[in-house]
Automatic annotation (TrEMBL):
First-to-last residue of the parent protein present: 45 to 377 of 420
Keywords tagged on the record: Hydrolase, Metal-binding, Purine salvage, Zinc
Keyword Metal-binding: yes
Domain annotation Adenosine deaminase: ranges: 11-314
The keyword Metal-binding belongs to this UniProt entry's keyword annotation: yes
UniProt pathway: Purine metabolism; purine nucleoside salvage
Cofactor: Zn(2+)
The organism's taxonomic lineage, starting at the top: Eukaryota, Sar, Alveolata, Dinophyceae, Suessiales
Protein name per Swiss-Prot or TrEMBL: Adenosine deaminase domain-containing protein
Organism of this sequence: Durusdinium trenchii
Length: 333
């Protein structure tokens, strides 16, 4: 089976990584000190009681992003850490509504992030395209306003080294209390040939509801990829539907364990792969969970007993390229 070095050098894409949640722990300490704000608790490796303490922590992390230099440092370090895990391509998701006011609004913040991504790519050879996401705990009108700004920035042609800077429109935060249906119009406004729908779904949901939100996102939002989606495994008919349509699931095993979705040893990942559903392996929020892309591949090998072939399939950049909508990575590879 793949040894440490082999697993590290396996060329990877990381498709599910929250930019703010991928900040280095030391960087959070330093930014909090610089801005005179209280440092949120170090939660790495700890089990969260439910989504609410996680959400509070996430909001507090975003509050330490205040200056252009903070965003530049964050983007560069995220690219450096991706490179250390063997990633060539990453798609960081932005909880931009939580801090854009500090930078003159959403459009101005996106332009800063595109510049930071160009510099990071030159320094690390790791290329990226962003997913801009609405926070589902905020009013639906906020999501729709964000969607219009995404559409405007994308049609303006602004990007990263001539590629589109935004690849997807997402939906973050507490799925159990905020189902996707009211956000359909926001997805309709934001999505196009260049911007794919990438909602978080099938992560947590009211008892028995996890599969239902995945089905809604596939059938009504036309998602060809789902952030998490692991609760779809509870519904055999849906699993067959996902396999038939080749909907790709971004699976985050450590995140699922620490948010109480399912332990790594019982991850639905192997079941979904066996049923023919394409999946990728991802770290979600390294800052909050203590996860890393390479660490997730190791846990899948050691604890979930995945074969080399299964691991390579989950890392396979071809899978990403074949997602026909994904213009960014095709221009890079
Ligand atoms: N925001 C950051 N990480 C998240 C997750 N795993 N689920 C929903 N929203 C998030
Ligand atoms: Zn996530």
């Amino acid at each position: 089976s793949m040894d440490g070095r082999c697993l590290a050098s396996l060329p990877k894409a990381e498709l599910h990584l929250h930019l703010e949640g991928a900040m280095r722990a030391e960087t959070l300490t330093e930014l909090c000190r610089k801005h005179g704000v209280k440092r949120p608790m170090d939660t790495r490796g700890q089990r969260f009681a439910d989504f609410s303490p996680f959400a509070s922590c996430y909001i507090a992390v975003c509050e330490c992003l205040r200056e252009k230099a903070d965003l530049e440092r964050l983007v560069l370090e995220v690219a450096e850490d991706a490179s250390a895990s063997g990633a060539l391509w990453i798609e960081p998701a932005l909880s931009i509504d939580l801090y854009a006011d500090q930078f003159g609004g959403v459009e101005a913040t996106l332009h800063l992030l595109f510049q930071a991504a160009e510099a990071a790519e030159e320094a690390t050879q790791v290329a990226m395209g962003f997913i801009v996401a609405a926070e589902r705990h905020l009013p639906v009108a906020r999501a729709e306003a964000l969607a219009k700004k995404v559409r405007d920035v994308v049609t303006s042609g602004a990007g990263i080294h001539g590629r589109p800077g935004i690849l997807g429109f997402g939906l973050h935060s507490d799925e159990a209390n905020h189902p996707p249906e009211p956000f359909a119009e926001a997805f309709h406004l934001a999505c196009s040939d260049l911007v794919v729908p990438l909602p978080h779904a099938g992560e947590f949901a009211p008892t028995g509801g996890g599969a239902k939100s995945v089905r809604f996102c596939v059938d009504h939002l036309k998602a060809v990829r789902i952030a998490h989606g692991v609760l779809a495994a509870e519904d055999q008919e849906l699993v067959e539907h996902l396999a038939k349509l080749q909907v790709c699931l971004d699976v985050c095993p450590t995140s699922n364990e620490l948010l109480g979705v399912m332990p790594v040893t019982e991850s639905a990942l192997t079941k979904l792969l066996a049923a023919g559903v394409p999946c990728t392996i991802n770290s979600d929020d390294p800052l909050l969970f203590g996860s890393s892309l390479l660490g997730e591949f190791r846990r899948c090998r050691d604890e979930l007993k995945m074969s080399d072939e299964q691991l390579a399939a989950c890392a396979d950049l071809i899978q990403v390229i074949e997602e026909k909508e994904n213009i960014g990575v095709r221009q890079v590879l």
